[in-house]
Specification:
homodimer, alpha/beta, Rossmann fold, 24 helices, 2 domains, five-stranded parallel sheet, 607 residues, Amino acid/polyamine transporter I
Chain lengths: 607, 607
């Protein structure tokens, strides 16, 4: 039944060689990998205005030069990630680039930072989408957490169904959002040109502003840069592209950058020209749409697609996290299970881990994840800076033909990314300090995992000069709880292996002991029975002591000791509750605490 | 470390023969077994007045005749439970009496009803005690559920420490409560006699009351009878008494009945004479104490011990539930684990089950368990009625010397209990109907458990004419994942058992397969290697198919098939997360779904 439900939710399993059919073309890739970046348009301008409004509405004209700064950074990032795509066509993004050029620790810092970041992406964007839903339907407000969790589960199932299927489903809302915003911007500009709109008062560019400071402008710039998160996702996901993968990935990246630039510029310009100020209860995009169209069908279309893209921004995390986890696991810095493909060829362990972690975050913060945004932004600019620096080192080291312009584009990217990162640390330290604690912890954890795998590999390796321990025979100990069919079968089995079979009976009462010994003599006189008395009603303690004694003697004779446990297997699962499961306890104890071979002989009840 | 914490919480384990030292004398038994009954005094009178106040305060004089009715029922119950104690000196109370005299189903109805009732006792009384605490410290009000759960855990630990220890601890608050109420009643009566108190208006007994109805009086009587819950606890717990157990239990019962009668009469009379009316924010006992002493030290002493006894009333459930569960389990109607004594000789599985169930109730009802009280009261009067009826049948059947007076006392008890039960059903049907659903379900469950144990016993019994299956040899299948020390050790072990050893390698990639086969030929040419290709990246599916094939052939040759699984045992628990644990999955699958013997060979990592 479980497997039927699984089939229903995620579809039939795919064969390994079907992996090729699961690759993405440019349009589908853009849909699933750019939702995070594109959705930033819905709030990027607002973030800038929210900082400026603390001075005065006159300062709003600064949003135009700040937006130009963001566009410059975007261009630098797009160009330099394009170079990363061609230099590292197998993907891995910031982690691989930093590791190969700057060393292991910068690589792990990038990787750890991004891993945490993708979890934050999912939590933050699903919470934002949920807010949009509960704003439209206030009666659902008490169920915010539940709705957010259900949304995460839906996106998880979609991703477990596989890359192409999720791309097919997600393409519609992403492109609808792009279309909606293009209509909004086009119509808005048309109205401005025809003079059809009466703009509220907006101060002309260059108006002097009282009380403006560099600190504040930098803070506004940093807030605007939060629109750039998600740019690196494509470089992580190159293996998911159709061949020639690097070319397709590069084209997707350029396409995404262009769309992002157009939409961001358009919204920022309209907000400035319309004199829109951020409001408590209405987003900037909603205000622009109201001014342009009034509250008609087009307005609701724009609002609906915006809410949808905010939720779907989470999908970028779902595309990039499993591949990053795979890369870390392949290098033995992360648990091996992240290298396994699931039924639908996705790295399902990564998908499920990401889902669980973000659900935990949503529950802990009760769906109010806004104050995680700065943490999330700084977590993006650390790997941005490291990967650009890595590329600089690469160009200087390799000096391929035409390396100077490449170097310059990465240099610009690295410098701006570094500055943005520092601005975050300086202007929002109270919100971003946790990064300084958890990043070192994650890096230490990665090293511990690596150390474990290395030492396991070393211990398991066959040493050519190793002496295989001599085995002259076996002793089999059978713990028995009564004279039953199951015990009889176990004895029959043990006797085919060795004539050194010892049955052990643990008695809680003295009189019990003798009764049992008498019965046993009549039943299996040829099998030695040892009765142990347990003062403390524990089965394991006397059994352990007895096994220790036997093992000591057996070792001298080169005999191996096995414990054979007859285990009842009930027909119905609830019957398990009616049996004491001491065999499970004994087995776990002997395997983990003692070095004893444990054989389980199942006895299936027929009713 | 776990065992150190356990020692700290519940103390060192006790030997089985130390059980005698754990028996109770009368004073300690009274403390732990009567807290439920005595605590009823804190709310019994109030329950009566709450019904009467719906007519008019003039009706309060009815509380006196109603209290007399309750006292008559109390006397009948005490006398007839005294007879149960002597007739069934091994305990078991209503369950044993009903089963032996009326048949299995009445017994199971009594037992099931009481099991549920003890869970309700714990939930209701701990919630009531928590209410008293949060009334005194309103700032703790948001943490009601947490406080209640912590209290349940404390009482659970106390009970896990053993019967005598909990009795020693609990004796103080119980006796302090008795002392506090005796002081209150004594002083109150003294003040009345000396005319030192100016009573508020109270209508003289016999004043005609407008709008009073029999229905209402019955309802008030039934509410007053909720003070009688917990009376049966002593008859369940006879095995916990010092010898001569029945005599000591009977004395304890009489003592409890006397105390209960005195306190209940005293409080009811003072409430009537003082003209106390039930208030929203102040209990009747608190009003009486204020009137008698004012808000001085004595007042707070009375209030404090009252709050304490309300919490400790839960302990009666903890004393009686495990013994009742033991009796049901001994007769195979309940899971065998309830017959096992824990480290401190208490039936710890019963104690823990009761604690978990009541915590679940507290969490579900968010600490507001008042509306469970009628359910709980009716759950007491069903077994009361059945056990009294059982005693009647017993006297008629056995006719011992002087049986007529015994019969009469049980007859009176049975009739009144039955009437009270019917009053509950008639006057509070909307609150007690769930009993009619869950009692049949519990009885069906008991029968299913019994049926399972009977059929298991039948299946396990050695049949004298049974043919032991012939075994001519063994085939051992070893699933291998690489060429490692662990696999080498497993092969060495398998070869001591049989020369029919087959290694199985499940490959996910075609090229992998050939590489592995080559390596294997060099390493263990004498061991046959079978490589299976898994299209769907599952290890279990191809392995299962292969084992099915081998089993089919082996059966023809009278060979038994075992699967030998090399299992890594990491040194630190968190390392388990770094290994895929496929061996656990394979083992569970083979044992539960197939009838295959599974041997686990542990390979302990040294670092």
């Amino acid at each position: 039944m479980v497997s039927t439900i699984k089939r229903l939710l995620i579809g039939r399993p795919l064969k390994t060689h079907e992996a090729g059919e699961q690759k993405l073309n440019i349009l589908k890739a853009l849909a699933i990998l750019s939702s995070d970046a594109l959705s930033s348009v819905a709030y990027g301008t607002e973030q800038i205005l929210l900082v400026l409004v603390t001075v005065s509405t006159v300062a709003f004209w600064y949003s135009i030069p700040i937006a130009i700064g963001v566009l410059i950074l975007l261009t630098a990032l797009i160009l330099s990630y394009r170079q990363i795509i061609f230099s590292y066509p197998h993907g891995g993004g910031a982690y691989v680039v930093s590791k190969e050029n700057l060393g292991v620790n910068p690589g792990l810092i990038s990787g750890g930072s991004l891993l945490v970041d993708y979890i934050l992406t999912v939590a933050v964007s699903v919470s934002a989408g949920t807010d949009a839903i509960t704003s439209a339907f206030p009666s659902m407000h008490p169920h915010t957490v539940l709705i957010a969790v259900v949304l995460v589960i839906c996106i998880t199932i979609l991703n477990l169904r596989g890359v192409t299927e999720s791309a097919t489903v997600l393409a519609y809302p992403v492109y609808l959002f792009v279309v909606a915003l293009v209509i909004l911007i086009g119509f808005g500009l048309y109205k401005i040109m025809t003079g059809d709109i009466s703009p509220k008062l907006h101060a002309p560019i260059g108006t002097p502003v009282m009380g403006i400071s560099l600190f504040l402008l930098l803070r506004a710039f940093a807030s605007g840069c939060s629109a750039l998160t998600g740019v690196e996702a494509i470089s992580n996901a190159i293996p998911n592209f159709k061949n020639p993968a690097p070319n397709n990935a590069a084209k997707t990246l350029i396409l995404m950058g262009t769309l992002l630039a157009i939409l961001f510029t358009g919204i920022t310009y309209l907000a400035y020209y319309y004199g829109v100020a951020p409001k408590e209860n209405e987003t900037v995009v909603s205000q622009i749409a109201t001014d342009t169209f009034g509250r008609n069908f087009v307005y609701y279309f724009i609002q609906g697609t915006t809410a949808l893209i905010l939720v779907l921004a989470a999908n970028t995390g779902f595309s990039a996290f499993p591949l990053l986890a795979f890369n870390l696991a392949k290098d033995k810095y992360f648990a091996r299970m992240f290298t396994m493909r699931g039924d639908r060829l996705g790295y399902s362990n990564g998908i499920i881990t990401l889902a669980l972690a973000s659900i935990v975050l949503i529950i802990i913060f009760k769906g109010k994840t806004e104050h995680l945004i700065p943490l999330y932004a700084v977590g993006v600019f650390i790997p941005f800076t490291l990967s650009q620096t890595g590329m600089i080192v690469k160009w200087i080291r390799e000096k391929p033909s035409g390396w100077i312009p490449k170097l310059i584009s990465n240099l610009v990217g690295a410098v701006i990314s570094f500055i943005v990162m520092m601005i975050f640390f300086i202007t929002k330290f109270s919100q971003v300090w946790p990064v300084l604690i958890f990043l070192p912890l994650i890096v230490i954890f990665f090293h511990k995992v690596k150390k474990h795998y290395d030492s396991v590999g070393e211990q398991l390796r066959i040493k050519p000069d190793a002496v295989i321990p001599k085995i002259d025979g076996n002793v089999i100990i059978i713990p028995v709880s009564g004279i039953t069919e199951a015990v009889g079968k176990s004895i029959a089995y043990a006797q085919t292996i060795t004539d050194q079979v010892i049955a052990v009976y643990v008695a809680f009462e003295r009189e019990d002991e003798h009764v049992f010994e008498e019965k046993w003599k009549k039943w299996h006189p040829e099998v030695r029975l040892v009765t142990l008395h347990s003062h403390y009603r524990s089965i394991i303690t006397p059994l352990r002591k007895f096994i220790d004694t036997v093992e000591y003697k057996a070792r001298e004779a080169n005999y191996w000791v096995s414990v054979l446990i007859p285990q009842f297997i009930p027909k119905k699962p609830w019957h398990n509750f009616l049996h004491n499961q001491s065999s499970l306890l004994i087995r776990a104890y002997l395997l983990y605490r003692r070095n004893v071979i444990v054989t389980t002989l199942p006895y299936h009840f027929k009713k």
